[in-house]
Amino acid sequence: MLSSLQLRRYYPDLTNNYFTGGLALVHSRFSTNTFPTWSLAQPFRLLAHNGEINTIRGNRGWMEARESVLSSESLGDIRGIRPIVEKGMSDSASLDNVLEFLVMSGLSLPHAMTMLIPESFNEKNPISEDLKAFYEYHSILMEPWDGPAALLFSDGRYAGGMLDRNGLRPARYLITHGGMLLAASEAGVMDFEPGDIKEKGRLQPGKILMADTEKGEIYYDGKLKKELAEARPYRTWLANNRIDLDEIRTGRKVAHATENHDRMLRIFGYSKEDIEKILIPMGTTGAEPIASMGNDTPLAVLSDKPQLLYNYFRQQFAQVTNPPIDPIREDLVMSLTEYIGAVGSNILNPEEGHCKMVRLNHPILNNAQLDILCHIGYKGFNTVKLPILFEVSKGKAGMQAALTTLCKKAEESVSEGVNYIVLSDRDIDSTHAAIPSLLAVSTVHHYLISVGKRVQTALIVESGEIREVMHAALLLGFGASALNPYMAFAILNELVEKKEIQLDYVTAEKNYVKAVCKGLYKIMSKMGISTIRSYRGAKIFEAVGLSEELSNACFGGISSCIGGIRLEEITKDALTFHARGFKSEEETNGRLKNEGLYSFRKDGEKHAWNPETISTLQLATRLGSYKKFKEFTATVNGKESPIFLRDFLDFKRKPIDINKVEPAENIMRRFVTGAMSYG
To answer: Glutamine amidotransferase type-2 domain spans which residues (predicted)?
Structure first.
């Protein structure tokens, strides 16, 4: 709003020799991801922030959900100050809101900052076991506010700075012999004689440097973190309460196969391509199959074939100045570790009861792990399984009624002390069809937030629909805590038994899970996010072809650039898949159909680039025939039915006079090198 040199004229006090202070916090830069306004001018109440919080959607959503279990002796009844995160503010302002709340609730500045922006620890950044336990305990209560960020903070007495866990924003500091500490986003902000400088360097990823203006002391990261880590017996609390599923052994035998295998494949919309082009490569190589980036089949909303609900969503990715991460090179800071369970009440008061959690190395549960979770006999761990099915005969009304009942049962379960809710579509029969798992988990997730009961339970999805990485990312992004893709495991088991892949089942399962995990790293990193805890519930997607009515009712109002399907269309597709499953062997020939999604098939999905269009173009180039090329363009532009959104558009055939168009030299004057950062 003002340049640095204008401040002294706008605030005359700054030029008065009698005006002195122990610290100054300055933010001098234009906005990059919001429009500059006075209400968003930095520094805020406690914080000045250079960077982006890539996980901001999820952080805001979980903070809203967490309000029901927040209480503070210092603040009293907090219902009067809700919402803690103001609406319509920038990511920096939201972070400042939460930081101020934590500090006003009694946490020290370093404690609040490390809770919000924890450092990563690995062989290149080894930390003590006590500090690891401190971070692990607090990761149960708060997901990281993740993204490239340099932060300066002050409460009037203490002033400090820190970097994000990846160190993706620059920050330099120097300390003079006279006791002045300067921390800034670059060197040379103020001039000092070399002889006056006692120490200088750069802030390290996740590290804090802080000054106490009252005592005239400077605190380094090691001392601050040591005091925090030793303030409570976090290691003992975790050791006595935390559960790791991989360390539990039971005598129960859990099957990998499913009953009515072929029928279940058709019910969940599997095609021959799903098995050959997706599951076999994932099960044998431990990685997603490599394919082209283009997709010349119709958007889900434009297709005349039944669609899985997942197909109506697209991933978002980092843009402007918030960079994506290379998940291979930055492997040290990437994490899929989760802690799932009920977040207890009064989480601002440290206590042992908050540690009753299940620790997962990644969010993909195999059948044995899910069975253990469903039968945990330890005190404080309660699991219930809720069916995500609806009555076939009732159609859309049955789907709506089933969703309403599901939400009410989930709410009742939380009230009864259930801290693990498994949403399962295993019990399908001729009269009950599966509710799409994405619709079920998102609806329950947002409903529990609305009634203030979301953080008191974990939502686990047991679904036969899940097979691709995108499916897993969507379910996690819309609130699932963990997933069990039981049909994918059943297919791998069938392939192993029929010797169609030359591996044992355990290896094939490990490879599949590894492929999904690698894929999740890739998707998270495209948004500049490094931990699954920050990605979960963040809804970093956009819908293409979802009606506003459905979006508001079930998906938290996620944006869709065009309108589209309602509950009627979702029900229709679900019933189509269900009917296919209950066809006779004679009708299906006992084989899965090749739907032609990845490769053109005459009776499969339409492709924009098909044998006709490709051969016409090839012939035109070989013959050098403009006439043949026009045949190609006529075929491409005059499709029988639209495939892309651009197929609904056409050129205006009456152009305006070129003399009425602004000259190029005038247009170019408005282009500047910093334009990408003007918000």
So the answer is: 1-214
Of the candidates 472, 534, 476, the one whose C-alpha atom is nearest the C-alpha of residue 58 is: 534
Round to whole Å and give the CA distance between 230 and 130.
Answer: 7
Architecture of domain 243-291+321-537: Alpha-Beta Barrel (3.20)
- Do residues 421 and 458 touch, judged by C-beta distance below 8 A? yes
Distance between start and end Cα atoms, the chain: 14
Tell me the pTM.
0.92
**Between residues 30 and 200, which one has the greater pLDDT?**
200
| Separation CA 364–CA 482 (nearest Å) | 6
d(CA 523, CA 526): 5
Tokens found for residue 94: 């939201």
CB atoms within 10 A of CB 74: 10
**CA 644-650-654 angle, 5° bins:** 170
Q: Where in the chain is the domain with CATH 3.20.20.70?
A: 243-291+321-537
Per the DSSP assignment, residues forming a β-bridge with 315 are 541
Distances, alpha carbon 585 to alpha carbons 266, 311, 540, in Å: 12, 28, 42
Torsion of CA 42, 44, 46, 48, to 10 degrees: -20
- Measured between alpha carbons, how far is 225 from 208 in angstroms, rounded to an integer? 9
Q: Across the strands, what pairs with 310?
A: none
**CATH 3.60.20.10 in the chain, residues?**
4-240
d(CA 93, CA 44): 7
Angle at 399 between CA 396 and CA 403, to 5 degrees: 145
Residue 350 clears pLDDT 70, i.e. is over it: yes
Cα 117 from Cα 102, distance rounded (Å): 13
Amino acid 679: pLDDT: 45
- What is the number of H-type helices and E-type strands within the chain? 23, 19
| pLDDT for residue 254 is more than 60 | yes
Strand, coil or helix: 281:
helix
d(CA 339, CA 458): 9
Distance of CA 65 to the CA centre of its chain: 16
- Rounded Cα distance between 27 and 419, Å, is 44
Closest CA to 517 of 248, 299, 335, 247: 335
Q: Which two tokens stand for residue 275?
A: 């098995």
582 pLDDT higher than 50: yes
Give the C-alpha separation, 205 to 193, whole Å: 28
* Cα 45 from Cα 30, distance rounded (Å): 19
Closest CA to 90 of 164, 32, 21: 32
Tell me: domain 4-240, CATH 3.40.50.300, correct? no
Q: Which amino acid is at 271?
A: S
Which has the minimum average pLDDT: 81-90, 607-616, 649-658? 649-658
Tokens of 16: 């008065």
Please count the other Cβ atoms lying within 10 Å of the Cβ belonging to residue 562.
Answer: 14
d(CA 370, CA 422): 9
